[in-house]
Design brief:
about 300 residues; alpha+beta; seven-stranded mixed β-sheet; about 25% strand; binds cytidine-5'-monophosphate
């Protein structure tokens, strides 16, 4: 299987709910940076992780892919094969704790893989329900494309958009941010009456950005670039001030738009064409404002079997 990283083209965050999560409205967008996930029958559940940042991925039952396996087993009362263990092998290309939902991608891939392996026959909408129990972003990693997420991100509606491909440059940071800490920092900034940073919205209630949706419908990358927004950005910048330089450098180098991805610290830049993305990637890595860069395109499909080589 392979499963894509996600960006949030809009992330509007409301106040904390009674369950600790934040109500939000977000526009998810899947991009061509994939983790590879294999599932094989085994005596007991286990996971092996290699690749980018593998040493920072939990290897035990806390691993999101194994939590997905357990959640699917509970939902698939029936096939005897589901009673057996599964060995999940993950090759990471999506950096860990980078705001790109890499763990959610692995969980989504594990759901699709075990559904196939066990012949569970769960429909995609049932899988999306199971996904929501594993994490807020897991359902979107199943769906892919561009989609609006509501609730805590798990209530999904595919965005009707033309087949425009957008060209992005990702700037990976030297460091990580914890998602709960970034949400907590946002609550603190708001409590201190500091919704003054660029892109900060009042904490209630989050709403879909009509300008972004209209830009996506028109397929106009310039308009999309201007409409990108992330309420978590001021919080991520307060915890990781060096990201300000990264964002400024990308805009100075001609990006159509720039923002922190999700809870960060990855910075995302929209380019007008594949060539402009290449120029931007080369210049950004030369500017010394990030650990490394990647060029990706979106939207791409959600977690799916890798087609065999022709
Ligand atoms: O759902 P998931 O486990 O991916 O979320 C990780 C953490 O991010 C949550 O424990 C919570 O602290 C924060 N979060 C939030 N509101 C959301 C999604 C995530 O506060 N809508």
């Amino acid at each position: 299987m392979r499963a894509p990283a996600k960006l949030n083209l809009q992330l509007a965050v409301g106040p904390p709910r009674a369950d600790g999560y934040h109500g939000l409205v977000t526009v998810f967008h899947a991009v061509s940076l994939f983790d590879e996930v294999t599932a094989e029958p085994a005596r007991r559940d286990a996971v092996t992780v290699s690749g980018e940042g593998a040493d920072r991925v939990p290897a035990g039952r806390d691993n999101l892919a194994l939590r997905a396996v357990a959640a699917l087993r509970r939902a698939t009362a029936g096939p005897a094969s589901a009673a057996a263990g599964v060995h999940i092998t993950i090759v990471k290309r999506i950096p860990v704790a980078a705001g790109l939902a890499g763990g959610s991608a692995d969980a989504a891939a594990a759901l699709v893989a075990c559904n196939e392996l066990w012949g569970g026959g769960l429909s995609q909408s049932r899988l999306v329900e199971v996904a929501a129990r594993v994490g807020s972003d897991v359902g979107f990693a199943l769906l892919g494309g561009t989609a609006v997420g509501r609730g805590r991100g798990e209530r999904l509606t595919p965005a009707l958009a033309p087949a425009t491909q957008y060209h992005w440059v990702l700037a990976f940071a030297d460091g990580q941010l914890s998602t709960p800490e970034v949400y907590a920092a946002l609550d603190q900034l708001r409590a201190a009456g500091r919704p003054a940073g660029a892109g900060t919205r009042p904490p209630a209630p989050p709403a879909l950005d009509a300008a972004l949706m209209s830009a996506l419908r028109s397929g106009d990358a310039r308009m999309v670039g201007r409409a990108l927004s992330n309420d978590l950005q001021p919080a991520a910048l307060s915890l990781f001030p060096a990201l300000r330089k990264t964002l400024a450098a990308g805009l100075e180098l001609g990006a159509l738009g720039a923002l922190v991805s999700g809870s960060g610290p990855t910075c995302v830049f929209l380019a007008a064409s594949p060539d402009r993305a290449l120029d931007l990637a080369v210049s950004l890595s030369g500017a010394g404002v990030c650990r490394s860069v990647a060029r990706v395109a979106g939207p791409v499909p959600g977690a799916a079997v890798i087609p065999p080589p022709k």
